[in-house]
Amino acid sequence: MVLGLASRVLRVDRKTRTSTILTAVGVAVATGLVLLLVSLPYATQARAERANWQLPDYDRDGTAMLFSHTEDYTGGDAIDRVDLASTVDPSTIALPPGVPRVPGPGEVLVSPGLLERMHELPAAQLADRFPGRVVGTLTDAALKYPGQLVAVVGHTPDTMPDSAVRTNGFQTASIAEPDPMLELLAGVGVVVLLVPSLVLVASSSRLTAARRERRLAALRLAGATPGQVTSMVAAETGIAAVAGALLGLAVSPVLQAAATLVPWDGGTWRSSDFDMPAGVEVALVVAIPALVLLAAVVGLRRVVSNPVGAASAHRPKPLRPWRLLALPITGAFFFYAVSSDDPSLEMILLGLLLVVGSAVVVGPWVTYAVGRIFVRFWRRPSGLLAGRRLLDDPRGAYRASAGVVLAVFVGSMALTLMPSFEGMAGGSGSLRDSVLAAYTSGEKVGPLTEQTNERLAKTGQQARAVAVGEVTLGTVNGSRITAYVVTCAQAGQLLKVNVTCAAGPAVYSFLGAGDYTVSGGYDEPGVPLNPGTASRPMGTVNGRSASVSAIIDPAAIPAGVQPRDAEILVSTAGSDPETVRTALLATGETVYGQDTHVVRQHIMLADLRRVTVIGLVAAAVLAGCSAAIATAGSVMDRRRTFGALMAAGTPVRLLSRALRAEAALPALAATVGAGVVGVAVALGLFSLVQDAHSGASALVTPWVLAPVVLGLGVAVLAASVCTPALNGVRAEPLADE
């Protein structure tokens, strides 16, 4: 009987049918977004599991092979390089999926993307980095993402890099951790996009709220029990909710296919990456319509408890100021979660959800307060009509602004975080931006430097490598710091220091003048510097977080002191950086520099910008749709009132101005508050990053005002649907109501 009544209402009532269709679309949007966002951590985990073999297995010490993993760059793209040397029969080593064989000495396996890049570029810029001949290619099963650049270089044990570890074979365990950054962003996305989606659902279901309440109240007065009334609404809403959830499940593969085109961490995705456990998927598809049904049933309190009041549309109870406490209480919980010694992602997301949910409690009271101001001080007819509506039904009036308020909150939060992240970008460390370096030992640095210079000269490059040792400088009072062994002139070209060079050997440091000792390693006893060594102060360090504490002229080092660690430094100024990098990589050591550090930052910032733009567009579209539907529903809820006003001669344009004012007035106050709260929440989230980067500081730019202005514009623009809705009321006979 319940389903029969619901089906009959949908067949004969066009307005209810329209509301049901829009509700189903809203549920489909919410379901599709949640399925996509929840699948993102699983997608990053799937990528990490495929690329596990590229990393050394530190938990499997053995003698099967020597293994080393390094990261290189070409043209702004990362290259994952694996150097290995088998110490047993290669056929006995288990191969990971996608790796055809274990390369022997002088053999190289490359990914298809890297092979194509090697054919496009001169050998001196890329191919010469991998000594040997290409004997095979890796398949997609071995790549983290399509197009990943990977090289597996075979060696003999004595030619392996010093950083190689001994292991029993490739890392074959499928256990991997999701990307923590994308996991956090996905959680935030679920919170800040699911709520606007549910607001869209609520706005759609409210299109015929007044008509439904009168129908249910009549049934209740005719003898229907509360359970029967509740079942009728559950059946009517359930049809839309279940249909929408199934539609969202059906379009989820389309959303995931679109997501495969969005790069993250240097590459795109495989469609299978977004597969998640069936139990999780079923739980989400069931939970979203269940929430919609719960909201619909909870909304029947007035009809069930007071059918006469619902039928006669008695004025609702006034709002109390205690609602304002919701925001500081939830805000305090959120900041407690982000400031704890061991922040929990679940607690942070719960705090964020509570802050977002507090808008539902605080917003209607703000709307009521705005209405009181306009009724008291505004004298134009449209303003008085709008103010009276805000006073009589602040909950319904705020409903049109709820989606916009959440969109402004998201925009202000994003436009605070992005400039703050971008402010963290830039080079750091001790090297100048144009310098590349390779770590090695003090014993090998000389021969490797000569080999590098030979390769640079052979390829016609002007750049030349410089051997720079690292020693420990001590003072008589026990202070010990690391110092670079390099001439003063070369230090100014290679390191982030400003020094005034003096004639003769000298030591330049921040320790001040004094008698110094020097040793090849930190745990070795120090010996005095050569006689005649001057002590001079170090100049101002260029660049943030630079770490040059001292430099020593090689002529000041005693004959018995051999630096334990050293670096090969090359300035790429005036030369081709890719060719210089290739020459330096031929040493077999790991190459790093400011350019690689900045490239990694640019990749991360580009990912964050992309995700931010997608999230803001989705939030804005959801907010605009919910505001437009809520405004149309407001007109349909008050068909009798507007019909009577128009019958009395009130112009449609006057009523349209009043409806636009209804949307603009609470939106103005609420969006300003949402912008402030969004900035505060962003600062709280950024504090998590500050803990890991001590030099980072948050930046609040004037751009945080843009969401407030745009949100107010979206609210007014969405309210423009009121004119067609009013014309529809005028075109229908008043007797229909």
Automatic annotation (TrEMBL):
Coiled coil: none
Membrane-spanning intervals of the chain: 21-43, 184-205, 239-262, 282-300, 321-338, 350-375, 396-418, 613-636, 663-688, 700-722
UniProt superkingdom: Bacteria
ABC3 transporter permease C-terminal domain ranges (all copies): 190-299, 615-727
Major subcellular location class: membrane
Subcellular location: Cell membrane
InterPro entries per UniProt: ABC3_permease_C (IPR003838)
Swiss-Prot/TrEMBL keywords: Cell membrane, Membrane, Transmembrane, Transmembrane helix
Keyword Membrane (UniProt): yes
Membrane topology: Multi-pass membrane protein
Protein name as it appears in the record: ABC transporter permease
Lineage of producing organism: Bacteria, Bacillati, Actinomycetota, Actinomycetes, Pseudonocardiales
